[in-house]
Design goal:
The chain is α/β, with parallel strands linked by helices. Helix content is 46%, strand content 13%. Strand 10 and strand 11 form a beta hairpin. It binds ligand V47 and iron/sulfur cluster (SF4).
């Protein structure tokens, strides 16, 4: 008997949960209220079986990863998000770094001859680094390595750059696109609900602004990702509201590549008194996301933040993508308490992690075109 058949045989299953399971297996969209019911009433075996059903219907055992590297131009940030280690640094006037274009090009050249397909550029919001500086950076990377996909800048960084340059969002995005930018990462979304945003990241772009920047990018032919910071002071209702706003936009634009729930980590920030979510809560979060976000093709577990073991386990709770075999320059998570102090994983290591979970690794590019299926060699 499959896990899904076992669900329907379970006489103790409530009629609400049975109706939701019926909808999901018939590929009918569930409502926000039903998603809240899943969070509140769904036990973990039930949620896992349903989410895994959705995942396997789409991809079977395929599990995606890409070969990328990160550049963080600066850890200085003018904003004061309570959950962020960078903000604490800035407030305490502790040392910060800012990289020159030459220094960033040095990072890019380190990958010459290595088959990476993407560079992910994201950092704090430095008061001095402006739109022209970043256009110059993008142009230089493209001139050096034209085939590299340039994914960069959260809506928070973009909003600041555009306001400083006195440009509309559309004008600013066009300028970056013309300089070589191809996609936007999903950061800065946190939780859209204003009452939560007021408490955790009051001074940066609001939820409507974040959504508008992504919508505008989609209209201009760019793709983007979406994130949600969970496991702090938000309720299940806030999470579902956030996911629902994304689902509505995705219906309109189809521009989001993937959804990435980001687990709140509590070290070295102003929310250290808040306990981190349990593993059960993480499994629930990913499973409900997979079931509810029916128009998002991919659900990504960002392993440098979650840790390898949790990310591997989540492959049974709806996740089909583990992000990249990235190098060591993403400091924001290790500072905030992720166990991954050195978040680098080679292609062999990421494939082994996926084989261990009885899945098949597939290298993808940023837009999820399949580049190579890594069938396990018989041992
Ligand atoms: O917006 C900051 C988060 C995000 C903490 O699009 C924290 O492929 C947890 O969005 N605990 C930026 N999270 C990073 C990001 C991202 C990462 C990987 C891949 C992609 C993608 C996007 O990091 C911020 C914020 O939500 N963050 N501090 C913390 N203490
Ligand atoms: Fe700055 Fe982003 Fe950190 Fe907020 S989350 S303080 S905007 S780097």
């Amino acid at each position: 008997m499959t896990d899904l058949e076992a669900i329907f045989q379970d006489k103790a299953l409530s009629s609400d949960l049975r109706a939701i399971a019926q909808k999901v297996t018939n590929q009918i969209r569930i409502t926000p209220e039903e998603a809240i019911t899943l969070f509140k009433q769904g036990e973990i075996g039930f949620l896992g079986a349903l989410a895994n059903h959705v995942r396997e219907q789409r991809y079977g055992d395929k599990t995606f990863f890409n070969r990328n590297f990160h550049i963080e131009p600066t850890n200085v940030c003018v904003f004061s998000c309570a959950f962020c280690a960078y903000s604490k640094l800035y407030k305490n006037r502790e040392e910060g770094w800012e990289l020159s274009i030459d220094q960033m090009m040095h990072i890019v050249r380190k990958y010459d001859g290595i088959p990476v397909t993407e560079v992910h550029i994201v950092g704090g919001v430095h008061p001095k680094l402006d739109l022209d500086f970043f256009c110059d950076l993008l142009q230089q990377i493209k001139a050096h390595r034209p085939e590299l996909h340039l994914k960069g800048f959260t809506a928070v960084e973009l909003d600041y750059m555009f306001r400083k340059a006195n440009l509309t969002r559309e004008e600013g995005l066009k300028k970056l696109r013309d300089a070589g930018l191809q996609s936007l990462p999903g950061g800065g979304a946190e939780i859209f609900a204003p009452d939560i945003r007021m408490q955790i990241c009051a001074d940066k772009i609001d939820g409507d602004g974040w959504l508008d920047i992504h919508k505008t990018a989609h209209r201009l032919g760019m793709h983007s990702n979406a994130t949600m910071l969970y496991g702090h002071i938000e309720t299940y209702e806030h999470r579902v509201d956030h996911m629902n706003q994304l689902r509505i936009i995705q219906d309109e634009t189809k521009g989001f590549n993937c959804f990435i729930p980001l687990k709140f980590r509590n070290q070295d920030n102003d929310m250290s008194h808040i306990a981190e979510s349990s593993l059960i809560e993480d499994m629930k979060m990913y499973a409900v996301a997979r079931i509810f976000m029916d128009n998002f093709a991919h659900l990504k577990a960002y392993w440098p933040m979650l840790g390898r073991n949790t990310a591997q386990l989540l492959l049974n709770f709806g996740v089909d993508d583990l992000d990249g075999t990235i190098d060591d320059s993403t400091k924001i998570y290790s500072m905030a308490g992720s166990e991954e102090q050195n978040p680098a994983m080679s292609t062999t290591e990421i494939c082994d992690l996926i084989y261990d979970a009885q899945r098949i690794p597939v290298e993808r590019d940023t837009l999820y075109n399949e580049l190579e299926v890594y069938e396990k060699s018989p041992s």
